[in-house]
Write a structure and sequence with these properties.
2 domains; globular; Growth Hormone, Chain: A; mainly alpha
Length: about 400
């Protein structure tokens, strides 16, 4: 794999760390600013919304410059946002810093996916995308726990300053290692927008929303679920999330490897197994050992869908994939927000802390049905194509 992928992975590591570390530092941030925990939660919501809207916005703004330069500008934005969070004198400025940092998230992974795929041979594209996303998955194993520890022991501002420093390393790596790849000739914004007329692109994005939404339906409520149902101490939740992160790392690499060989079968297996495991989690959540194993499997199966889904979007939006790729990153966050809301509804309805697992299982099953539908439509189009050729041309083909 080219060294340029390492630079992209470092940037992804920093972005993954800043996205998730705030969840473990909410009490400290809330106490420092004198706001409630729910109010501090706007730092999570604001970031997610920034990713959703920032992904297409920043990608469109970057259509006039090379992808390498845009990646560098995005890392610069990421650095500014985290520095602003680190020094914010009031909560409102902290929120602005989070939103500024989030604007880089979706476009970085969207454009980075295109760059990563272009760096390697056609049969290694999903593996290259997975290599970049490894930075995001490793962040959940290393960056988030360490960032939480630093924030709780030294101060949360130090955590965000360190994350900004990671952004500087990522920026330097991109500047040094990523080749200056020119924009495709003749590709304009209207071509990027035209990709959204492709039903297969929209189906892939819907699979992203539902499939990864299934993961977050369960993981969003992992703390109360594990303390109330499984009987874990509150301090154990951090290590359970590390297991989830380890599963993400493994699933991401496996998903990237096998998606290059058989993309749709990989989606069938991962989505089907994810739906099954989430359904079983309603039972295994009551046993400490089984719960820990299940959480690891959810991380692995959930992230095994990421490289194939991202590559599916790139393949279907061939020729002008950048905007579609970035919007698909926003689709992950839309799935996170939707599933967290649905999971909260079933808990509020009195169905118990394990009820979100059923929500997740249904979402993953719906994503599997969409994958089957997508493949069926693709086969129908392939079968219908020869019939659309004029009779004279058919005779010529037969003759030759």
């Amino acid at each position: 794999m080219p060294l340029a992928l390492l630079a992209l992975a470092i940037g992804a590591f920093g972005i993954g760390t800043t996205e998730f570390v705030i969840m473990g530092l909410l009490p400290e941030v809330a106490a420092d600013y004198g706001v409630s925990i729910p109010t501090a939660g706007y730092l999570v919501t604001g970031y997610a919304l920034g990713v959703m809207f920032g992904a297409p916005l920043m990608t469109v703004l970057g259509t006039k410059i090379s992808r390498k330069r845009m990646l560098m500008l995005l890392m610069g934005l990421f650095i500014v946002g985290n520095l602003l969070s680190a020094v914010a004198p009031v909560f409102g400025v902290m929120l602005i810093g989070r939103v500024v940092a989030s604007l880089a998230h979706g476009a970085f992974f969207g454009i980075g996916s295109v760059v990563a795929a272009d760096l390697v041979a056609p049969d290694k594209k999903a593996g290259a995308i997975a290599m970049m996303f490894t930075g995001l998955t490793v962040a959940n194993v290393v960056g988030v726990p360490l960032g939480t520890l630093v924030g709780q022991s030294i101060g949360w501002r130090v955590t965000f300053a360190i994350v900004a420093a990671l952004g500087v390393v990522g920026l330097a790596g991109i500047a040094k290692l990523v080749p200056d790849m020119p924009k495709a000739e003749g590709v304009h914004l209207r071509h990027e927008l035209a990709a959204f007329k492709n039903v297969q692109v929209l189906l892939a994005m819907a699979m992203t929303v539902l499939g990864f939404g299934g993961v977050f339906a369960a993981i969003t409520y992992i703390a109360p679920m594990m303390t109330h149902a499984a009987g874990f101490a509150e301090g154990s939740v951090t290590w359970l999330l590390v297991l989830f992160g380890l599963g993400m790392v493994g699933g991401n690499l496996v998903g990237g490897r096998f998606a290059d060989r058989a993309l749709m079968p990989m989606l069938y297996v991962s989505l089907g197994a994810l739906a099954l495991v989430l359904a079983l989690f309603t039972l295994t959540a009551h046993n400490k050992i089984l719960a820990a194993v299940t959480i690891t499997l959810i991380g692995a199966l959930g992230f095994a869908t990421v490289p194939p889904l991202q590559k599916r979007v790139l393949d279907q939006a061939h020729g002008a994939p950048t905007l579609a790729s970035a919007v698909n990153i926003g689709a992950f966050n839309l799935g996170n927000a939707l599933s967290a809301w649905l999971g909260g509804l079933v808990i509020a309805a009195g169905l118990g802390y394990t009820a979100p697992n059923w929500v997740g299982a249904l979402l993953a099953a719906a994503a599997l049905l969409l994958a089957i539908l997508s493949a069926a439509l693709e086969r129908r189009e392939a079968t219908a194509a020869p019939a659309s050729v004029p009779v004279t041309e058919q005779r010529t083909i037969v003759h030759h």
